[in-house]
Design brief:
Elements lengths: L1 H13 L23 E2 L13 E7 L13 E2 L4 E3 L2 E5 L4 E5 L6 E6 L12 E2 L3 E3 L14 E5 L4 E6 L14 E3 L14 E2 L5 E3 L2 E4 L2 E2 L12 E5 L5 E5 L32 E3 L4 E5 L21 E6 L5 E6 L15 E7 L2 E9 L5 E5 L9 E5 L13 E5 L20 H12 L15 E3 L13 E3 L4 E7 L3 E7 L3 H6 L8 E3 L6 E7 L15 E7 L5 E6 L23 E4 L3 E4 L6 E6 L5 E6 L9 E4 L5 E7 L13 E6 L4
Parallel strand pairs: 1-36, 3-8
Antiparallel strand pairs: 2-42, 4-5, 5-6, 6-7, 9-10, 10-11, 11-12, 13-16, 14-15, 15-17, 17-18, 19-20, 20-21, 21-22, 23-24, 24-25, 26-27, 28-31, 29-30, 30-34, 31-33, 32-33, 34-35, 36-37, 37-38, 38-39, 40-41, 41-42
């Protein structure tokens, strides 16, 4: 008890920081503007984390099964500022909670339409302005909470009252669907799922554009708005429109003018000291055929540094050239201080669905760990020209499996193993970055493999970057436009295949994750989900351990080591811990950051497709909070609307 008291005192001392900023606060999606996801709180530590218990649970009431499209995905990471928790729900509501009791203080209803067939019915959180709770905005006297809703509206809310700010935009709202180079055709093709980035008096917003329906999908402009008035400050198109601009020559045959997407649907992070925002971009449309957009396709599949006040491009680094695999930069970039051989450099790390991790100089974009271009397989599809090379970091190695031979196929039953082996044997398997083909290609990692949108955390004490990694293979097949009807009549576009038309090209698409038909477990050998820690200085993989467990496998021998896919990210704390969830299992976990040993597993009402956060409550206790909303898939726990807070028992 005496030691616990000493720890508690250290936490309380940490709470009073320079300039009045509460060190125990969580003021942005990744805790700080740069998304480091490191908390200096240490009341919960290796020695006592096993005693964590549920402190309170709040229900939003917003879990929803629409008439069409996907169900809600409750993915919000709450903020803790000014002694209040703020979170969003997929249907456009913002809720303020008492951080100690979980009681609602107010709720704002953005009234997002619910039955529009959204491709990803999610909201990952809100943003606060200003970030520093000790300051008062120079041009406005009240803190604001910003939400970018699923139906693409940017709304400013008074943090104290929960009312929209009438002087922002039109009665508190800016319509993000207006002013785009290629306008949206419907609600489902242009959404916003991630919170805006806030830097100074600028609010920076990206977008989520549907995949694979058209060549001319909505354009993916990133825009900066005045935080006080809502007026547009700047707009940056990731597809260069000026023929003389840098990157324009990577779009052949005037394709830049006719191609959409390359949007930033993941979380944008900021460096206020350098007046920079770091934008993670996705593939240009459509994802799996690039014959209408030949060239490297800058600035898609990149991390791009922009001036926060003007939108001017400062530098870029492309993780995949001429993407043909849906290898978006889904993981938010992370800003941290990189140290090696007595030298400290401001750095940005970016993780890819390829399983590659790139560590770059934050000011120049140059790799701090070398990157080389290596030859990759050619396309055999008429009209396509795959990039002859792709970037590979010297370290770390790919954190996900990048090849799979038929004889390596896995199955929980002999029936599954035979099916997986036979199916893989029919596919083109030319190695990493093998392009889609007319006969079918094995794509590994698949579109939810590698490092997904959950992102990573940086532990300052150990200088480790920690991230979830998915090991899943997919089957991708292109269909010549003239053969689509025959394929449909033959029943080859149904079942577990996802069909996409890719209008504007000569080929439609079918794809599916490769899962055994009997158990629906992956054909990829386990573990299917891991948590990995990488030495940020050298790129050495320090540890990589299974993460979670697939529901329904509890009685199978060895299943505890098979892991689960994870759609959510980790956080690190000064207590020497990594907290994470995101798996199909209804649980949250704590790991020892030094070794990867799991120290605690907390039971949740349903699975948590989200990233946790932690804060110091007014009662002096450290809390860890997670949004648990289920995964909306048949093999996982059901939909939910729970916000769950854990804490140590009261003394």
């Amino acid at each position: 008890m005496r030691n616990a008291g000493i720890v508690g005192c250290s936490v309380l001392l940490l709470a009073a920081g320079a300039g009045g900023q509460q060190h125990g606060d969580w003021v942005a999606y990744g805790r700080d503007a740069g998304g480091e996801r490191y908390s200096p709180l240490d009341a919960i530590n290796r020695g006592n984390v096993a005693s964590l218990e549920v402190a309170w649970t709040f229900r939003t009431g917003d879990a929803y099964e629409p008439k069409r499209g996907r169900p809600t995905a409750f993915e919000a990471t709450p903020l803790h500022v000014d002694g209040t928790l703020y979170l969003s729900t997929p249907v456009g509501r913002v809720i303020a909670l008492d951080p100690v009791t979980g009681r609602q203080r107010w709720a704002f209803d953005g009234k997002a339409p619910r039955d529009m067939g959204y491709g990803d019915f999610a909201s990952r959180g809100v943003s606060a302005w200003p970030l520093d709770s000790s300051s008062t905005p120079a041009r406005s006297g009240a803190r604001r909470i910003f939400i970018a809703t699923i139906d693409a509206r940017l709304i400013a809310i008074d943090a104290k009252t929960g009312l929209p700010v009438p002087t922002f935009g039109e009665n508190g709202t800016v319509d993000l669907r207006k002013g785009l180079r290629i306008a949206p055709k419907g609600f489902a093709d242009y959404e916003v799922t991630s919170p805006p980035a806030v830097i100074g008096d600028t609010v920076v917003v990206g977008s989520a554009v549907q995949d694979n329906a058209y060549t001319a999908e909505p354009s993916g402009e990133v825009r900066g708005f005045d935080a006080v008035t809502g007026k547009l400050k700047w707009s940056w198109d990731p597809i260069p429109q000026d023929p003389s601009a840098v990157g324009a020559d990577t779009w052949k045959n005037n394709s830049a003018a006719e191609t959409g997407a390359a949007n930033a649907w993941s979380v944008i992070v900021a460096d206020p000291a350098r007046n920079l925002v770091f934008v993670p971009t996705g593939s240009a449309s459509p994802d799996y055929y690039g014959g209408e957009r030949l060239g490297a396709n800058l600035f898609s599949n990149s991390v791009v540094a922009l001036r926060a006040d003007t939108g001017e491009r400062v530098w870029h680094f492309q993780t995949v050239h001429h993407d043909l695999w849906d290898y978006d930069v889904a993981s938010p970039p992370i800003l941290f201080e990189w140290s090696k051989d007595g030298r400290t450099v401001p750095a940005v790390a970016v993780a890819s669905k390829t399983g590659h991790l790139f560590i770059l100089d934050r000011e120049t974009g140059k790799p701090l760990i070398p990157v080389e271009e290596r030859p990759v397989p050619k396309s055999d599809v008429p009209g396509e020209e795959a990039s002859p090379t792709q970037p590979f970091p010297a370290a770390p190695r790919a954190l996900a499996r990048t090849s799979l031979r038929a004889e390596e196929a896995w199955g929980a039953t002999e029936e599954d193993r035979a099916w997986c082996r036979d199916r893989i044997g029919t596919l083109r398997t030319g190695g990493f970055f093998t392009p889609p083909s007319l006969g079918g290609t094995l794509v590994i990692p698949g579109n939810v493999g590698g490092m997904a949108w959950g992102g990573m955390a940086h532990d300052r004490a150990s200088h480790l970057l920690i991230m979830p990694v998915n090991n899943l293979a997919a089957e991708v097949r292109l269909i010549a436009r003239g053969d689509v009807d025959a394929e449909r009549n033959a029943g080859r576009l149904s079942g577990d295949f996802e069909y996409a038309p890719q209008q504007g090209t000569g080929y439609a698409l079918v794809r599916r994750l490769l899962l055994g038909p009997k158990t629906t477990l992956p054909c990829t050998p386990p573990p299917w989900g891991t948590l990995a820690a990488v030495n940020a200085s050298t790129g050495e993989v320090v540890w990589q351990v299974p993460l979670g467990q697939f529901p329904g496998t509890e009685k199978l021998p060895g299943a505890a080591e098979w892991g689960s896919i994870a759609l959510g990210g980790p956080i690190a704390t000064a207590g020497g811990l990594v907290f994470t969830a995101g798996t199909l299992e209804a649980a949250m976990y704590a790991f020892d950051v030094r070794t990867g040993r799991r120290l605690w597993k907390g039971t949740l009402p349903t699975s948590a497709r989200a990233t946790p956060m932690t804060y110091l409550g007014a009662d002096g206790r450290q809390y860890v909070v997670i949004s648990a909303g289920g995964h909306g898939v048949q093999i996982g726990p059901p939909l939910g609307d729970h916000v769950v807070a854990f804490a140590l028992p009261k003394r």
